[in-house]
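Practice problem: predict the structure.
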Amino acid sequence: MDHTVDAFLEPGVLVRHPAEPGWGIGQVQSVDGARVTVNFEDAGKQVLDAREVRLTYLGPDPRGDGAGL
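Answer:
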């Protein structure tokens, strides 16, 4: 397992959890080292270890209003 944290992980970006497709799209809320808090459409707020989970980057939040998911 690669123990680096993806550079794209920053508050506001949209991601998917590759092992949990039912969670829907998530928006990164915060990043503290490898600890990433993501608010998923269908699973709510999840705290993940980015060294263990490689989130799929979808891009910046196109709304740009900061409202989040």
